[in-house]
Specification:
Elements (H helix, E strand, L loop, with lengths): L1 H22 L8 H10 L5 H22 L4 H5 L6 H25 L9 H18 L7 H15 L8 H12 L1 H18 L11 H13 L2 H25 L3 H10 L1 H13 L3 H26 L3 E5 L18 E5 L9 H16 L14 H31 L18 H6 L1
Antiparallel strand pairs: 1-2
Helix pairs in contact: 1-5, 3-5, 3-16, 5-6, 7-8, 8-11, 8-16, 9-10, 9-11, 11-12, 11-13, 13-14, 14-15, 15-16
Length: 429
Amino acid sequence: MAYVTFTIVLLASLIIALLAIVQHSEVHAPTAWSVLSKLAWKNATVRPPLLITLVVGGWGWVISVCQAARLEIDHVLGGSVQTPEATYHAALLLLCVLIGAHLFHFWASETPGITWRPWVVSNCALNATFLMLGALPCGVFFGNSRLSLLRALFESVVAPFAPVTFWHVIVADYLTSLAKAMSDLQLTFCISSSIFFPSAVSDRYIRSTDLWHHEYKACANHPANAIFLALPFWWRLMQCLKVYSTTFEVKNLWNALKYSSAFPLVYAGYLKKHEPSHFHDQCFIVAAVVQSSYCFIWDMHMDWGLFRKANLGGKYPGERGAAYCGGPAAVCAMREPLLITRSQLSYVLLCVFDLALRFIWALSIFGGVPSRGFGMLFFECVEILRRTVWAVFRIEWEVIAKVIYPSGAYQGLQAASLSEEPEDEDEDE
């Protein structure tokens, strides 16, 4: 508790110091929007550390909700889970590092005649610091949990040459939600390299912002940017094929197809940028609709197991239902048990929430929001929010399928026991 208090005091001190520098700055505009933009969304270098901090804080909330619902999360994740309080503390420490780096940038840029570009240096150093904190080989900075995450990240990247557990699935799915952050890292490396190692040396000093905008188009249009965007989906695809190679369950091939549907979307977006045309716009929209629809249906049916076919029996005498392949008439009903909450309406709203956030990015196609800056940060945060909520109910379904009904026993049960008929009716027949 003392460490958390110290971290909160440190964070507050850093924020106060930052505001004090801005208020007396001769370089930075002392407006809330200007300061926030430099902290959160001004360019590709500032967004990844902030998004990682949000992911860590969101994971603390996931653990908190699952523990409140008494889900056996340690069992399904394959080991002891760090407490929500410790995870929140880790997020606060990362936020302190983030604010500290920007404080240094704001302070250093006030020095007259400075030429070592504190803006670019501080942001690049911030990304490098986050990477080094995550990759520390020792047990410091929440060692057990961090090393478990690091191991899962490495094994996800080298799939299919590594085991695939439920923990690997969770980590790799989070990576797909950070796909844009991956492309941001490519942009950061590409543009920063051009700034620090220019092909032609100029006699006059050029502002870092001007250099950044000058190099942005070439780096954003480079094929490496699209490759980095697609990498998390490739890693997840390889995991699905790895699982299929050991289990031969066809559902893993359907899951692999789901992640494969991201590649046409990435390629259509690449064509849309390089060869703008009405046809390529249509291709991008079709690819986006197909990919988002596939993922949404998979979320409901496979990741959350929400809806199951249930025989009518004597439960709904006024309902006709529908017959499948000559079988008995049936309806689609919500599964039981519901562990996070007993309210079926909450699960219906969950589906609406997931559907809306799956498709909300399509607003950018019609020019509803800008594709860079605050608009891009908004979409990245929306996706992290969706993934955080998704994780709670994905863990719930894993507990139901593997703990409450182990060995696939749940597959033989009808949703909400609607297929059960009274014994006296069977005897009368």
